[in-house]
Design goal:
The chain has helices at residues 11-16, 18-28, 36-51, 93-98, 119-129, 145-153; strands spanning 5-9, 57-62, 66-74, 102-110, 135-140, 157-161, 171-172, 179-184. By secondary structure, it is of the alpha+beta class. It has a single domain (5-184), classed as Gcn5-related N-acetyltransferase (GNAT) (Aminopeptidase, 3-Layer(aba) Sandwich), CATH 3.40.630.30. Strands 1, 2, 3, 4, 5, 6, 7 and 8 form an eight-stranded mixed sheet that branches. Helix 5 links the parallel strand 4 and strand 5. Helix 2 packs across helix 3 (36-51). It is globular. It starts with a strand and ends with a strand. 33% of the residues are buried.
Length: 187
């Protein structure tokens, strides 16, 4: 594998690279053959919204061409995303959300030729350095064993399950993300 450099992108740079980001998304999450165009268009729609969110931050890993991206943003302070988790939710999640201390990992995509070399770990670590949050969270498909294994190895824990549609916590990866995972950044 060629040398890969990790760097942060501003909102403007992220928006300027949206086509390259969408290319990596489609390649990283090969799903149903023939639906690539629709998947790409939906990703571009969501990405355009995400880039405008408060606290948006993005990392890219690239050599001759981009090989991986990770991005996220602060969850809406007025949101009540934790209510869908039911009983057993940590007592301070509402307080952290209202105080703007919950960062959502919105997307992590790594091309197949860059997997299993620690690149995803490096990207997420660098993304969270400036997150200015006490908790990071994401939604994941419970059948996505690779994503769950990565989250566990990074010290994340499952917070609960929610409906997949219309939930304010973004989902990482392909499939129907219904499990909410989180990790404390500040004790």
């Amino acid at each position: 594998m060629a040398e890969v450099f990790i760097r942060r992108l501003s909102r403007w740079q992220a928006e300027a690279q949206r086509e390259a980001v969408a290319d990596v998304y489609v390649e990283a999450y090969r799903r149903v053959r023939g639906e690539e165009f629709d998947d790409r268009q939906e990703f571009l729609r969501v990405f355009a919204e995400d880039v405008q969110r408060a606290g948006f931050d993005m990392m890219v890993a690239s050599g001759r061409k981009p090989g991986a991206y990770a991005y996220g943003f602060l969850l809406d302070r007025a949101g009540q995303w934790w209510r869908a988790l039911g009983d057993g939710v940590p007592w301070d999640i509402e307080e952290l959300t209202v105080s703007g201390q919950v960062f959502a990992l919105a997307e992590l995509m790594v091309l197949p030729e860059h997997r299993r070399v620690g690149l995803a770990t490096r990207l997420v670590d660098q993304l969270l350095v400036r997150a200015n949050a006490a908790l990071v969270t994401t939604r994941v498909d419970p059948a996505n064993e690779a994503a769950l294994g990565a989250l566990r190895s990074w010290g994340w824990t499952r917070l609960g399950a929610v409906s997949a549609e219309g939930h304010p916590v973004p989902g990482v990866g392909a499939g129907t993300p219904t499990d909410i995972w989180g990790r404390r950044l500040i004790s």
